[in-house]
Amino acid sequence: xxxxxxxxxASICPASLPPFIVPLRMCMTNCPTLIVTxxxxxxxxxxxxxxxxxxxxxxxxxxxEFNVGQYRRDCVKIYKSFEFFRPDNExxxxxxxxxASAALNDVQQYLGEEGGQVAVFDATNTTRERRETIVRxxxxxxxxxxxVESVCEDPDVxxxxxxxxxxxxxxxxxxxxxxxxxxxMKRIKCYENSYQTLDEDLDRELSFIKIIDVGRxxxxxxxxxxxxxxxxxxxxxxxxTPRSIYLCxxxxxxxxxxxRIGGDSGLxxxxxxxxxxxxxxxxxQNIKDLKVWTSQMKRxxxxxxxxxxxxxxxxALNEIDAGVCEEMMYExxxxxxxxxxxxxxxxxxxxxxxxxxxYEDLVQRLExxxxxxxxQENVLVICHQAVMRCLLAYFLDKSAxxxxxxxxxxxxxxxxxxxxxxxxxxxxxxNVDAVNTHRDKPEVGPHCTAWGPVSSNMRSVPVLSATCTxxxxxxxxxxxxxxxxxxxxxxxxVRLDLFPHFVFPAE
Amino acid sequence: MNTYSFFNVTMASSPRELTQNPLxxxxxxxxxxxxxxxISQRRVCMTNCPTLIVTxxxxxxxxxxxxxxxxxxxxxxxxxxxEFNVGQYRRKCVKTYKSFEFFRPDNExxxxxxxxxALAxxxxxQRYLRDEGGQVAVFDATNTTRERRGTIMSxxxxxxxxxxxVESVCEDPDVxxxxxxxxxxxxxxxxxxxxxxxxxxxMKRIKCYENSYEPLDEILDGGLSFIKIMDVGRxxxxxxxxxxxxxxxxxxxxxxxxTPRSIYLCxxxxxxxxxxxRIGGDSGLxxxxxxxxxxxxxxIRxQSINELKVWTSQMKRxxxxxxxxxxxxxxxxALNEIDAGVCEEMTYExxxxxxxxxxxxxxxxxxxxxxxxxxxYEDLVQRLExxxxxxxxQENVLVICHQAVMRCLLAYFLDKPAxxxxxxxxxxxxxxxxxxxxxxxxxxxxxxNVEAVDTHRAKPEVGTFRVSxxxxxxxWCLQASHLW
Lengths: 507, 484
Hints:
Two copies of one chain form a homodimer.
Chain A: E1 33-38, H1 45-58, E2 63-67, H2 68-75, H3 90-112, E3 118-122, H4 128-141, E4 144-151, H5 155-166, H6 177-192, E5 208-212, E6 217-221, H7 226-235, E7 245-249, H8 254-257, H9 269-285, E8 291-294, H10 298-305, E9 312-313, H11 330-336, H12 338-346, H13 359-375, E10 379-383, H14 385-396, E11 412-419, E12 422-429, E13 450-451, E14 460-461, H15 469-479, H16 500-503
Parallel strand pairs in A: 1-3, 1-4, 2-3, 4-5, 7-10, 8-9, 8-10
Antiparallel strand pairs in A: 5-6, 7-11, 11-12, 13-14
Helix pairs in contact in A: 2-3, 9-10, 11-12, 13-14
Protein name (chain A): 6-phosphofructo-2-kinase/fructose-2,6-biphosphatase 4
GO molecular function (chain A): 6-phosphofructo-2-kinase activity; ATP binding; fructose-2,6-bisphosphate 2-phosphatase activity
Family (chain A): In the C-terminal section; belongs to the phosphoglycerate mutase family.
């Protein structure tokens, strides 16, 4: 059964529940964390909130951001002018306070009932008084608090911020550019007089990071635990310099052509053609200081070789290890490992190949790649289908359920350019034919059968019915191929292929 | 979706063929079957120009502790690093230390000698980074004046090094007192002094620096790259991190602490495959292995360790071992044993029989050798780095792991180089207790007195492998492989 901490626990007999299974993510944090932004308007608080939320979710820490400005927009349907934010505007103050409270209530719900682990409270929080309120709220609820302040006085940065994200805001849809800028600058002024920046002495008991001048300098105080340490490391590696990231797979390989997964084969003729076209494409793009990364598998390196530029090989970019299924065709897997085949379709993200990896494992091994991609500027990453799906999911904020089904066809380059709070994606096909290696998520229902989707000569595979409770339990143990325990008994290996009669339901 | 059309594609010269280095299983471009050019051994993303790390701070602020620890960490992750302690140069030059008077700011003779020592150290830095393949040099001295730091900056600029300052600021008298007790009293400077005299002299030594101390300032030194560590990690100021290695250094420094604690390392109990002499796999514990697990449980209880965390791999044998402790534990996939690829579950004799070349290559360079479709020790270190980082953050931890994994972790704590790492002795049924002390680690071997097979293979003497007539080009392969 699925424990409250998202870990499958074995239990043939529920009474013998092992109480000592520690969820894998334990070292992340035991009590929830409340991240609180601090700073004047247009200092990148929402940018940071959204980015941090995206990163934490990707590495498997359930996180959600709560933007108080959104609550205000929901409450005050139409934004009139900066006057709403004047410090002497009683009505405005009242509404803003209510919105902050509403947001905190939702935080409480998220962290308490919805399984959230981190909540990002995105607002100006510029006064010590407001921050104290939040700290008390956190204390009552048993949350750890970590403040993230952004301080910046560079007028160019602020102006660019306004252009990128404020002009397009719902607040200014009916304004022309000059009016909008003028109003926004007055809005900032409303906060300036009462702004109490986080201070090394006055706030020395708090845990925080103060980001100065978009990362030129950082002040870090009292990092309490692992998750705060990871947050600090992440925030210190991101930047806002415009750049593009190019993702593509290796050219079509010999094993691709044979419909076999994994392995370490070389490029087919069409794959080599793609490599040449990729070289021309890259040349034409005229990218400044482009770095090229590949995996350590022959097919990505062969592809990079055609570019005639230096490239770096990362073992971390190697394709997902299919373990015992390496170099098999999907039909062969279905034939030889029908249970594995079915399990994978049941939960493709967490499913680990026997003696292999899962997408979940991939994300963990790709984290240093993502960290370095954040540090870098223009990069071309030549990788593999599963790997590219993981990287893409990070940039496009796709959930674990969607990730294994993202479309990453051969011979297509994805150009990602950060813009506003997200990422612009351009998909560029280089017009070289290749096989299609994509398998859609099969249709599954509690009482129906799944049909192998790749080719017509594949047999149908019965899906494990949700009505078969025992099967579901054994199934759940097997999905992540973890050794789970049954207290009061010897360790039971989760070798479901030995007990096929438990797994396939009557239909 | 855009399609990119080509009408005039200039055919580039045909791409180079690839060949796989037999040792590391890395694909490199080649001509006529031989590697085309020397693939730089530079680790992914590490900087091209060398980095000079410069410590800053009054005496007894932990500069040497930080220097040594950082050097150990960087070397372990594969960045050739060396520390240059100016105090050491001074001790070589001025054979006998008399008193703090040497450090008085008005002692002309003393100043001259100290300056010479700093220059001598910088000369060695230059040699290390230019001729000896070094990538990072840690220049460990007080460097408390802007003038001295300016000299170092000029030196670095002339040589094309990036500079990163690491300053330690601390005014907590308890911390300083503990520092003196741990590392100063036993220093060669104070060998012939009694404790009280040594402490008194050292406090006066610190005073000599205080008046001229110019701490790194966010404004005045705004153009420099540095981290200022305040109160042993309570607070950090980080300025202008330039590149990947500096970012990693900052992350590391922000995760270490000096709270006393112990780290316990051991392997799983003897497994069924161990008994059969087979490597790898995912078998359960043998009868003796289970006995060890019980003994381990008792041992841990007797140690009465404060808030012990227990970590295992995701392999059955380590988990079974942890289960006997009846305490919560965390499973790390990163702690899984080295993947022996095609050789999984084979005996060494079978490997030698079926893969004689692989067998020989492994003995040639056991650290870098990667099993076909498997891993190398070098790969292991990379995957264990997050474990080390978390071990640094934690306090009392018991890590139940595997032979190759334990060797890697041990090499980190005991500062063992890559050549020695794969041959470190990590026998079954033995717990290693590591306790940080002074600049290093105290190690206690505790055998739990449960018999087990011996899985250790010592480094074979060169030339002892049998070369049959079918392997005439074996020696060529072996010689050539480590050149690329």
